[in-house]
Design goal:
single chain, 295 residues, globular, alpha+beta, 58% helix, two-stranded parallel ribbon, 14% strand
Length: 295
């Protein structure tokens, strides 16, 4: 016969009460979780793929801007109907990128007229800096095409960085499978050994990957040779100081890092190779642009 709770020791009664409260809390949490929409329970990629972006209207000026770009980048002449579809698909992909970026707080909502306005503001700032002798990184003046490329490239990088930073267990498992299938993709330079003859004096130099990045800035012809050369290949050149030099490549060592050591690199590579295009396509399909080409 079950014991009477009131006749149990006080500590035991408190423990039972706490256990009952915990059980109720767990059940409530499960009920709340199960009542959430399915896409909220899914992983990050699945949730973003299901994102319902606002539908945007594209006018003639914007359509012509993207259509010209698509036409210029076709490798062969394309019929007008096919070209129009390519242009619309491209515009929808652009919409998807900026809609995702906006939803994650990475950029402003995309608007073609606003982009042109911001470009003129940026050009004014850059030209003023150039006139004052200040450093300007990139062009002093953007064209609409180069400014859009600049925005799109930065956004693509920011989106991938966001996904790497917020990767969930499903993404990590898929990235690990991607690494396991092709570990050689992640081979890294360990060192380069070469013989340098300078002003009649020879010596052996061994440079790490970090040393090579420094050499790229200090002596780019030598760095380019060492990256591309085969063992025993020789380069005769002038050093930055104007001295005659002769470099002979001796050995290049590479290694394949473990997944744990290259996890963020692997995640970034997997996203770019297998995820991002399909993610953009999924978002674009859910909110295709409306084309008002008579306006």
């Amino acid at each position: 016969m079950p014991a009477d709770p009131m006749k149990m020791p006080r500590k035991a009664r408190l423990w039972l009460a706490a256990a009952a409260i915990a059980a109720v809390a767990v059940m409530a949490a499960v009920l709340v979780w199960n009542s959430r929409p399915q896409n909220e329970k899914a992983g990050l990629i699945a949730r973003l793929s299901a994102y319902q972006a606002p539908i945007r209207t594209v006018g003639r000026e914007e359509y012509d801007f993207f259509s010209d770009f698509v036409r210029q980048n076709r490798s062969a002449p394309t019929e007008a109907a096919a070209l129009e579809q390519f242009a619309k698909d491209y515009i929808n992909a652009v919409n998807a990128k900026f809609a995702l970026g906006s939803s994650l707080g990475l950029c402003e909502n995309y608007d073609y007229s606003a982009m042109l306005f911001r470009m003129e503001q940026e050009n004014t700032i850059r030209q003023a800096k150039s006139a004052n002798g200040e450093a300007v990184y990139g062009p002093v003046r953007f064209t609409p095409r180069s400014y859009f490329d600049y925005l799109e490239s930065n956004l693509e990088t920011d989106l991938v960085n966001y996904l790497v930073e917020h990767a969930d267990s499903t993404m990590e498992a898929e990235a690990k499978a991607y690494y396991d299938a092709s570990p050689a993709l992640f081979e890294q330079l360990v060192s380069i050994t070469y013989e340098l003859e300078e002003n009649g004096v020879s010596r052996l130099e061994t440079l790490t990957s970090e040393d090579m990045r420094t050499l790229e800035r200090a002596d780019s012809p030598l760095a380019e040779f060492l990256y591309a050369a085969q063992p025993n290949e020789t380069l005769e050149y002038q050093s930055p100081e104007g001295l005659p030099c002769r470099a002979t490549l001796i050995e290049v060592l590479y290694e394949i890092p473990s997944y744990d050591d290259a996890a963020s690199v692997v995640m970034r590579s997997w996203l770019n190779a297998q995820v991002m295009d399909s993610l953009y396509a999924s978002v674009a399909q859910r909110a295709p642009a409306v084309f008002a080409l008579d306006s």
